[in-house]
Amino acid sequence: MSRPRPGPAPSVVAAPPPTPSAWVDRASLSAPRRLPWGCAPGTHGLTRRDATSARRRDAKNSGKGKKGQEARQVEKVSSALFFKYNEALGPPYRVLIDTNFINFSIKNKIDLVQGMVDCLYAKCVPCICDAVMAELEKLGEKYRVALKLAKDKRLERIPNPPGTSNQTYADDVLVEIVKQHRCYIVATCDRDLKRRIRKIPGVPIMYIHNHRYSIERLPEATMGGAPRI
């Protein structure tokens, strides 16, 4: 019995030679990584200019970029205002009186209550705060008639608002009162106080013009007998 002849031996395919990119230099693994030119160690490849820009951006976002910068405060708008129209004003009008308004009324021989009624054709309640009363008391004997008029029972006494109880400068107290309550008409002949009141929306100003009371910043339909200027 004949044995089967062995087949041809399987051919062995040789592996291709390694490319140059496959060679790994063991010395390069242990050597430190070279950073690009101009990069500081620990910046992960960022240049010095990029690192400086990042620090400035972080300082600006954290609020440390500008020294002495204060937070901007926006005053709350009164609920009585419709744009610049004050819906809280209406008869009987409450008129907040300044010190010089009383003095000029006496010089022009105008009665406080009757002059206001002739100006607005409506009932008016003159109001005087504690700071104005303190100013009249400090003026001395020369203004005793103005002090006597300020103590009239027809005038309503208003206490100073919180935080201004110790102030005797009436202008600051009057401005603070009308900022908190927009239901007053300010009666004054002081130019500086008028300028400050005009910056507060919805607060009319009463003053003396041609020996009569007049008013500004009030709708013309409600001005009554005030002269139109």
Description:
- This protein is 31% helix and 14% strand.
- The chain is of the alpha/beta class and 229 residues long.
- It has a domain at 89-222: 5'-nuclease (Rossmann fold, 3-Layer(aba) Sandwich).
- The strands form two sheets. It has a six-stranded mixed β-sheet, sandwiched between helices. A two-stranded antiparallel ribbon has the order 1-2.
- It is elongated.
How confident is the prediction overall: mean pLDDT?
A: 78
Span of the ends, CA to CA: 143 Å
Instruction: Report the helical percentage.
Output: 25-40%
CATH architecture of the domain at 89-222: 3-Layer(aba) Sandwich
Please give the count of helices: 8
CATH homologous superfamily label of the domain at 89-222: 5'-nuclease
Question: What brief labels describe this structure?
Answer:
229 residues, six-stranded mixed sheet, two-stranded antiparallel ribbon, 14% strand
